[in-house]
């Protein structure tokens, strides 16, 4: 029987010609010609997944680097907070880009305090949420039984401003296993997706309203460029598909930098969702203006 060969990890340098993101497999496929390592000159496809180590050698544009830095900062802020609780015990977790970080464990005290021991327990959880929630998209309240519903009622009475952030999920346990149950049920993915769609839908509604009244909006590449020449762009809306296409044909980054230098905001719409598809039907690019361009 021939001896089974062991797989050996090698490092390759590939001159990238094509990049594809397979969202359902959560995998980035990078295709190009090998320039360093084994089989130089051959075509090869790299499958990039989470935790894959790679180096990117590229002439970075300043706005691209700035967006990477912004994304890195944003990834460190918890977008979703998970509270898993049952009678007498609660765990708070923060959803980070690398997974869930356990923030605290709270146990109901047996000592004295204002109100019932249960109310004191709920107040302690609520106090930590008030400290953490700034900048978060949502707070998931989860756990077995009815304690979570009782806590939500307590929260609604004491801090109604938090109510719109609350999502309730059933789990069979608390702690890290409870956090993982919340992730497996897709609650966090739904929150993040709905949050992006909501932001883009609001901008699209505003754009269509301005267009319908012949107001402060332009759409189509030439019209948007003209508006920019007047320094009128307040918010630039561009579809990701349009951005990719333009970057293949011309240097659109110079235009984007110029918009930002004129205090314009740039929002890249995903064509996976309806607002982005609507934007593509308008030419893939539009702008909300500070003032109407004649």
UniProtKB/TrEMBL annotation:
It holds the Pfam family eRF1_2. Its cofactor is a divalent metal cation. Keywords: Cytoplasm, Metal-binding. Its main location: cytoplasm. It is found in: Cytoplasm. One of its GO terms (cellular component) is cytoplasm. The keyword Zinc-finger does not apply. Residues 1-73 form the eRF1/Pelota-like N-terminal domain. SMART domains: eRF1_1. GO terms for molecular function: metal ion binding. Belongs to the eukaryotic release factor 1 family. Pelota subfamily. This is mRNA surveillance protein pelota. The lineage of its organism: Archaea, Methanobacteriati, Methanobacteriota, Stenosarchaea group, Methanomicrobia.
